[in-house]
Amino acid sequence: MEPVVHTLSDNTFHITGIGLFDCDVVFDCGQCFRWYKESEYWIGISGTNIARVMTIDDGIEIVCAPDALEYWMHYLDIEYDYISARDALRGDSDISTLVDISPGIRFLNQDFFECLISFIISANNNIKRIKSIIDKICKTYGTQIDGMYTFPSASILAQCTDSDLRALGAGYRADYIIETARLYTDGYDYEPLYTRDIVAARAELTFFKGVGKKVADCVLLFSLMRKDAFPVDTWIRKVMHDLYDDTTLSDSAIGQLAQERFGANAGLANQYLFHINRTNLK
DNA sequence: TTCCAGGGTCCTA
DNA sequence: TAGGACCATGGA
Hints:
Blueprint: E1 4-7, E2 12-16, H1 23-26, E3 36-38, E4 41-46, E5 49-56, E6 59-63, H2 69-75, H3 82-89, H4 96-101, H5 112-121, H6 127-141, E7 144-145, E8 148-149, H7 154-158, H8 162-166, H9 174-185, H10 198-205, H11 213-223, H12 234-243, H13 251-262, H14 266-278
Antiparallel strand pairs: 1-2, 2-6, 3-4, 4-5, 5-6, 7-8
Helix pairs in contact: 5-9, 5-11, 10-11, 13-14
The structure holds a DNA duplex.
């Protein structure tokens, strides 16, 4: 089934034929930190584009500038066949029930640099506080557009001092943000990461300061469409230890087991395990 | 007061 | 290569 775009007005579109897109889950499951809900719409900004998104039958309603629709189609990962991916996961006895509990989980293709910095901030942190720190950084160093703030450019963050970012709550991650921004502005090209072997892609990202295997996998999964990535955080570690009845499994071993078991759908399996357990929906 | 959070770095054995 | 101390901060 192919996505179908219905134009309702000059800035309102319905996209159908994509199965369930559960906005309440997609925008609040820990993959992004800057979307908020107002009435029935979720509102977000990426680059200089602003969109309002709402779940409808078999798809979404999106309100945005008409020339930004293609941008948002990519950002919202409309072209990916989640219906087939979910069907594949239903063949796994431990995941099948989770798919039915929350079938509308999907991924976003976020801006690479924003995603990279956001997950550096996520290290040993909680989602509420991550959102707070990113919000302060955007309000301090971003540009205001229609009441919202852009994510600051790498060149702006590269000029910050350690104390600048510590004052916004970044703590010891301030230096990681600055060093990563400086390296990025030197001319980093992330395009090869779309197709590179997952192990090599992960290793390359860990070259950035403050980026380990877990953060690298988050960036690959949440901004570069790498659905074979499997981030291992504290929640996933607990779930996998429980699943395999082995609390001695290392993070590397967990990642290896996930790759072998879920393959190209490892990321989606990861998100089901993370979301269902974190929100205690079992 | 202690533990914990979508962990990473650095040092040591 | 593996394990452990340390790192900021605020909510539970």
